[in-house]
Amino acid sequence: MWALGTMKIQATRQEYIPAWVNPEVLEKLWIFNPNYYIKSWSGSPKIGWFAYDIPDVRTGFCTGDMYLEEIDGHLTVGFVAGRHRTRWLMTRGDPLIPVGLEEHHYQKALSIGLAVSRVLAHEELNA
Fold first, then answer.
1. 112-117 CB contacts, 8 Å cutoff, 24+ apart
2. Boundaries of every domain in the chain
C-alpha cells in the first residue's frame, strides 16, 4: 500500500481555502456534472498532488479546488483543478476529506451539509 504518513493540507490557490467536506454528500452532488465527474480511481496517487516546499514539513497535500454550480436544475460541483485527487481521497473511505473552496462557495456548502468546517492549521491528512 502507498503511504506517506501524516502531512500538512495545503491550498493549491490562495482563494481556495481548504475545508473538510463529507464525501457522501459530495458524491450525490458531483454525479450531476458530466464534465467533471470521475466515477472511480485505482492505483497510487500522482506525485504532483503533493508539495515539497513547505518549510519544516516533509510533504504537503495540495487540495483539489472545487466550486458549486447549477446544471439542469441540479446543484453540483465543478473543479478548477484536482478532481482526480479528490476522487482518490474519496476511495479511501475517510469520513471527511479536504478540498479547496472559495468563501462564498464554502458558506453555501455549509448550508447544504457538504462542508463541515475549514481545515485548521494543526490538522493533517493521513496518506
1. 112/25, 112/75, 113/22, 113/25, 114/21, 114/22, 114/25, 114/26, 114/29, 114/68, 115/19, 115/20, 115/21, 115/22, 116/19, 116/20, 116/21, 116/22, 117/19, 117/20
2. 6-120
Q: For the chain, 127 residues long, give each residue's pLDDT as a single digit of tens.
A: 345 567 889 888 899 999 999 999 999 999 999 888 988 877 777 777 777 665 555 578 889 999 999 999 999 999 999 999 999 999 989 999 999 999 999 999 999 999 999 999 889 888 7
- Could you give the CA distance from residue 42 to residue 123 in angstroms, rounded to a whole number? 26
C-alpha cell at 18: 481548504
> pTM to 2 decimals?
0.87
Residue partners of 19: CB distance under 8 A and separation at least 6: 98, 99, 100, 101, 106, 109, 115, 116, 117, 118, 119
Q: Which amino acid is at 7?
A: M
C-beta neighbour count of 95 within 10 angstroms:
9
